[in-house]
Write a structure and sequence with these properties.
The chain has 434 residues and is of the alpha+beta class. The protein has 2 domains: 114 residues, Rossmann fold, CATH 3.40.50; 267 residues, Bira Bifunctional Protein, Domain 2 (BirA Bifunctional Protein, domain 2), CATH 3.30.930. It is 28% helix and 28% strand. It has 12 helices and 22 strands. The chain has a 6-stranded mixed sheet with strand order 1-19-18-20-21-22, sandwiched between helices. A 5-stranded mixed β-barrel has the order 10-11-14-12-13. The protein has a 3-stranded antiparallel sheet with strand order 5-7-6. The chain is elongated and about 80 Å long. Bound molecules: adenosine-5'-triphosphate and magnesium ion.
């Protein structure tokens, strides 16, 4: 990978920014999102399906996850469950043999001491921790309903991961778990979650292209689970889309029995590719029963607890958004999740002239929400290319020409229109920060 020089891009403070772009990316990175994100310096490939989030990437991931928190905290408290999980709990739910993608961890020192007891599961999901944990908090009907969530790195030994952030072997997920006294109460919460997810997709700029999709995986009464599928040309799923009724069906459930059950003629629906960004499940008693999670009713009877779980792929979302909005020049981030709102490009030979002074003032005033390219050893063309690759919503060029024309040359990443204005006009029109 040929690197661009980045001796002096500033981000948030005066230290070296840790930002680097690349002119080309190894062909081994087959997916569009990995190509875009590696080239622009947001992620670094470590192993197949395993990435480091670099400075810019970490900003975007944090923005996605903080928006997720804003929505989920309305309904449950945030916790952080352990990644290392006891094998015994996976035996209780009978998933040790039945989940094909499990990663197991062993302490090397325990192996050498021939200790068999220390096997752990590296959490691919957390029902095995969440259900016994809930027993500590739920005793009677007064403790219900109850919900908590976490945002965490998950581990799944996916076969041949080649979709970049869309399918990692180590990836980020938000998972919420809910506990209810009755099916009725559960269903009410389940509908609330569907709405909350759609509000989150609105904030992420994905609502118009994200569809609630019936899929396999529900238990007992509700036979289906509900996926949130975002239309994406290189998405891994195929869905049957009913635009009129604003609903879709995962191809995996499409058969005659379901056609009759749901009263749907699948042949009339459009087939499109999409990426599953979220999945919510009615769990019924699937986990509460094996862990004996019960509550006492008003009358003193003991009853099992209804559960639901609600997953959201935060790192997959980053990959989906990267692919969905990019153009031939590079990334185009929606404003809410961009690494910074403004990308300042200074055109100055030696960082001693008025263009430098004006840029410095701008950077100091905008501060946190800008990235400042004050490199002098690369051409203006290269700097503009980097701004396009990185994809912040606004590019602000400060040059002798822009100063002559009224101050700053302002261009939105997603448009070709160029405007000139001074700092005050800029803030009045577009705001200082997000
Ligand atoms: P898939 O069918 O794509 O393998 P899944 O149905 O096994 O996913 P869930 O257990 O429903 O996944 O996980 C909740 C969410 O986590 C998914 O909707 C998806 O957005 C995300 N996710 C799951 N597996 C991965 C992965 N390997 N890499 C990135 N995100 C993932
Ligand atoms: Mg799923």
């Amino acid at each position: 990978m040929k690197e661009a020089s980045t001796d002096n891009i500033q981000f948030r403070n005066e230290f070296s920014s840790g930002i680097k772009t690349y002119q080309d990316v190894s062909k081994e990175q087959e997916s569009l999102n990995a190509q875009l994100l590696i080239k622009a310096g947001f992620i670094n490939p470590e192993l197949s399906g395993v990435y480091t989030y670099t400075r810019l990437g970490c900003e975007v991931l944090k923005n996605i996850e903080n928006l997720t928190r804003e929505h989920m905290s309305k309904w449950g408290g945030e916790i952080l469950m352990s990644s290392l999980q006891p094998v015994e709990s996976w035996e209780i739910t009978d998933r040790l043999e039945n989940m094909s993608s499990l990663f197991e961890a062993r302490g090397a020192n325990d192996i050498s001491r021939k200790l068999n007891s220390s096997r752990y599961i590296l959490g691919p999901t957390h029902e095995e921790i969440a259900t016994p944990l809930a027993k500590r908090y739920i005793k009677s009907y007064r403790d219900l309903p109850f919900a908590f969530y976490q945002i965490q790195t998950k581990f799944r030994n996916e076969a041949r991961p080649k979709s970049g952030l869309l399918r990692g072997r180590e990836f980020r997920m938000k998972d919420l778990y809910s506990f209810h006294a009755s099916e009725e109460d559960f269903l009410e919460f389940y509908e609330i979650m569907k709405k909350e997810y759609m509000l989150l997709f609105e904030d992420l700029g994905l609502a118009d292209d994200t569809f609630i999709t019936l899929a396999d995986g529900g238990n007992f009464t509700e036979k289906f689970s509900h996926e949130f599928q975002t239309l994406l040309p290189q998405g891994e799923d195929i869905i049957y889309l009913d635009r009129k009724n604003n609903i879709a069906y995962n191809k995996e459930i499409v058969n005659e029995e379901n056609a009759n059950r749901l009263g749907v003629n699948f042949d009339e629906l459009e087939q499109v590719t999409a990426s599953e960004v979220g999945n919510i499940f009615p769990l019924d008693f699937k986990y509460s029963q094996p862990f004996d999670l019960t509550y006492t009713t008003k009358e003193g009877d003991t009853k099992p607890i209804y559960m639901g779980c609600y997953g959201l792929g935060t790192s997959r979302l980053m990959g989906v958004i990267a692919e969905k909005f990019a153009d031939e020049k590079g990334l185009v981030w929606p404003e809410r999740i961009a690494p910074a709102k403004y990308h300042i490009v200074t055109v100055s030979k030696d960082n001693k002239d008025i263009a430098h002074e004006k840029s410095k003032e701008l950077f100091e005033v905008i501060g946190k929400d800008s990235l400042w390219d004050r490199r002098t050893k690369v051409t203006v063309g290269e700097k503009l290319n980097d701004a396009d690759l990185i994809g912040c919503p606004f590019r602000l060029v400060v040059s002798p020409k822009s100063i002559e024309n009224g101050g700053i040359e302002v261009k939105r990443r997603a448009s070709d229109v160029v405007e000139y204005m001074d700092m005050e006009e800029l803030f009045n029109k577009y705001g200082k920060t997000r």
